[in-house]
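JOB MANIFEST
job_type = single_chain_structure
chain_count = 1
residues = 78
[input]
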Amino acid sequence: MPNCSNPLQCQLARRVECTCGCGGSNHGKLRQKMETPETRQQAEEELKTLREQQTVLKKQKRVERRKRRAELRKVAKE
């Protein structure tokens, strides 16, 4: 998966244009699978794994933001 800033939202998107970092390569793919009965089960499994990945990604971003803020505070104190 290319650098989506929010992979879950991107793959479930209904709108036409993509505004994240993947450049539209992942945009709306999972939504299309959810709409057809033949691929719905597979899409639900992908959605479950995507949600798990999303929680890990959120935690990583949170840690990075905290580290960045801590470094900025150290620089400001000096």
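[summary]
The first helix runs from residue 7 to 11.
Residues 55 and 61 are 10 Å apart (CA to CA).
exit_status = 0
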